[in-house]
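Minutes, structural biology subgroup

Action item carried over from last meeting: produce the structure token record for DUF58 domain-containing protein (Motilimonas cestriensis). EB confirmed the sequence was re-checked against the source entry. Recorded below for completeness.
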Amino acid sequence: MINPALPYSDGLNLTLKELLYYQQQKKPRASQGMAKSMLAGPYRSLIKGRGMEFDEVRQYQAGDDVRAIDWRVTARTGSTHTKVFKEEKERPVLLLVDFSDSMIFGSQLLLKSVQAAHLAAQLAWQAKQRGDRIGGVIFNHDQHLELRPKGRASGVLKLVHQLQNLHRNQPQALQNAPNQPESGERHIDPGQYFTEQLTRLRRLANTGSQIHIISDFAHLNDEGEKQLALIKRHNQVTAWQLHDPLEQSIPTGATASLNVVSEQGRGWLNLGKDNRRYQQQALLRQQSLELRLKRRAIGHRQVNAGQPLLQQMSI
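Output recorded by EB:
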């Protein structure tokens, strides 16, 4: 049962109202493994240079840089005037949001895909509060959208609308998925498809962008890792790994079988019989992902789909 005080509908579908909810949230303090520098406050630019933009013209004062004197205004007024610059803080913030089949899973509060959308909305609204431009790549199992960075509220609103659009009907589509592809249907390799989205993100990003990759990384392969390295070369990158409690461990005493759906078809998982092997495989997958990200010097954060997002992001 979803708590009505929380910004969720049924945990299965994604509504615009719950994404707009994060517009009203204050910048949270980091906790439970989430980096403060990622969630709130200023950041240091990766771009060297002046990083300044014109603000106004005023009368020259002792100590002002003579190179900034505005000679046209000086000649017109008869007194020395100088240009005043302010630090340019606007920065592109790009989000890669994964709604592929492996993300359409949840055992407690939310589907991982719904939690991913909530996290994307939270990060986007915070970027808007800083005056940054927001864009990115959103994709599901057969569609993708590229959003070029836009400033002000328009950038966030376009993002949240497209999050809802691409997520719509995803759970139903997976539930009705056949065991095997129909005759003539093109099979898309999940690892290759995920790599293609990373490639799109890399081409969209300008040097010095802040990049948030929101996924369960179930389909990250060697080629995808290479794309991550290329993205990281000129940008600040954080990997937000979505997980569900049932993916990490099976509840103690569970003996029932669980009907599961994957890209390979439908099947049954015997929770009691396969418990130990299940946990060992989950641990190996997690260690493999962490190793990939560590050797590319990419920040890694975990987000639980079984807990409200704001409880994980504030003390």
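Discussion: The chain is about 35% helix and 20% strand.
Next step: EB to file the record with the rest of the batch.
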